[in-house]
């Protein structure tokens, strides 16, 4: 008998899970602002989305609404706190990505900027209070470029 793989074949080794205020609105937001795609149909319970999985290139996230499955997790926005985590996602063209998100009305934290580690990065805050950075690698890391 063949041994079953430790994870689904098409799944990355780690998938961050986000608590969102409203799953339907969050899915719409991530698809419109950040061009994520649904991996499969969301899981619904009593008509409400309880779990969804989205991807952008090879990056994945899952999400569930506050209170899903009896959990007490809340979004950073609901708690009125700065998100304790941020997301860093590589995209093929950070300039085009930034322009798309900007025209869709995303809350901009900073526009595309060259960073000392070799990435060109832009950053946004989503409706649930999570910080998202999107980057394209444009150069190799050079320690001489580190801030003094």
Topology, element by element:
Elements: E1 17-20, H1 23-34, E2 37-38, E3 43-45, E4 48-56, E5 59-65, H2 76-79, E6 86-90, H3 94-103, E7 107-114, E8 119-125, E9 131-137
Parallel strand pairs: 1-5, 6-9
Antiparallel strand pairs: 2-4, 3-4, 4-5, 7-8, 8-9
Notes on the protein architecture:
The strands form two sheets. Strands 1, 2, 3, 4 and 5 form a five-stranded mixed beta sheet that branches. A four-stranded mixed beta sheet has the order 6-9-8-7, with helices on one face. Strand 8 (119-125) and strand 9 form a beta hairpin. The chain has helices spanning 23-34, 76-79, 94-103, and strands spanning 17-20, 37-38, 43-45, 48-56, 59-65, 86-90, 107-114, 119-125, 131-137. The termini are far apart. By secondary structure, the chain is an alpha+beta fold. It has a single domain, classed as 2,3-Dihydroxybiphenyl 1,2-Dioxygenase, domain 1. This is Glyoxalase-like domain protein.
Using brief descriptors, characterize the structure shown.
5-stranded mixed sheet; 148 residues; 4-stranded mixed sheet; 18% helix; 2,3-Dihydroxybiphenyl 1,2-Dioxygenase, domain 1; 3 helices; alpha+beta; single chain
Q: Can I get a quick summary?
A:
With 148 residues, the chain is α+β, with helices and mostly antiparallel strands. It has one domain: 2,3-Dihydroxybiphenyl 1,2-Dioxygenase, domain 1 (Roll). It has helices at residues 23-34, 76-79, 94-103, and strands at residues 17-20, 37-38, 43-45, 48-56, 59-65, 86-90, 107-114, 119-125, 131-137.
Q: Radius of gyration, rounded? A: 17 Å
Helical coverage, percent range: 10-25%
CATH topology: 2,3-Dihydroxybiphenyl 1,2-Dioxygenase, domain 1
CATH superfamily: 2,3-Dihydroxybiphenyl 1,2-Dioxygenase, domain 1
The largest sheet is: 5 strands, mixed
Question: What value does the average pLDDT take?
Answer: 95
Low-pLDDT segments: none
CATH architecture: Roll
Count of individual helical segments: 3
Count of distinct strands: 9
Pfam families: Glyoxalase
Organism: Candidatus Berkiella cookevillensis
InterPro entries: Glyas_Bleomycin-R_OHBP_Dase (IPR029068), Glyas_Fos-R_dOase_dom (IPR004360), VOC_core (IPR037523)
Domain VOC: 11-137
